[in-house]
Amino acid sequence: MHTEATTALIDVSYLPRLEFFTAIVDQQKLVLDEDAMYQKQSIFNRTNILLANKVELLSIPVYGARKKQRYKEVKIDYNQKWLQVHLRGIRSAYGKAPFFEYFFPELEEEFLKKPAFLWDLNESLLTLCLKLSRINIPIEKKSVNTEDQDILDLRELTRERAEFADRKYYQPHAYPQLFGADFVPNLSIIDLLFCEGPSVKKILELSRKKIVNNL
Q: This protein's superkingdom (predicted)?
């Protein structure tokens, strides 16, 4: 008899998108593989926010990542002015959002700690976003046996370029955004946090695809 896994194996990406959160919202534990390799052209260091006239890609520059380099060893390049650009962009995008004043100070505080490694920044931001979303899921860091049948492998969400519509986790559930007449799906979790506050978890649950299994 098949039972649903309650532990998810994830990559920790930069301010993850809504698809990621809809996939993990009902999990009992998240596992980060400490031996994971960094993957270029992934969203480990990228996310999207909504500005007045466009969707903006925020990207963290890193020092030249090598092939077969451990994710935990990838360093952030603070010589580039990305931090000021990202914080200014987030203020510009969400400064008038209903819950901006509640959440932004804690978010800014994590950025200003300036951790040296991308993994550490992403992990701290994920932990904060889970807390602000009122999603109580513990995170464990360890070396992982990917053949473990009790772990749901969700690393495709950060490594593969497939559109969310082609995967089985996220079906957009519209909520009021600040800009534009049309709803923009699958932005960073901060879009939902700043716009909806305490309703985040409910909207994530409503955004989960309903899978019908043919038995």
A: Bacteria
In whole angstroms, what is the distance from residue 204 CA to residue 142 CA? 27
Q: pLDDT digits over 66-81, tens only?
A: 777 899 999 999 999 9
> Is residue 49 one of the residues assigned to a domain?
yes
**Residue 66 per-residue DSSP state:** P
- Alpha carbons 73 and 120: distance in angstroms, whole number: 10
Domain count of the fold of the chain: 1
Rounded Cα distance, 153 and 202, in Å: 24
Q: What type of residue sits at position 53? A: N
Q: What is the CB neighbour count within 10 angstroms for residue 11?
A: 23
What is the model's pLDDT at position 110? 97
Between the alpha carbon of residue 52 and those of residues 98, 172, 194, the distances in Å are 16, 20, 15
Report which residue type is found at 142.
K
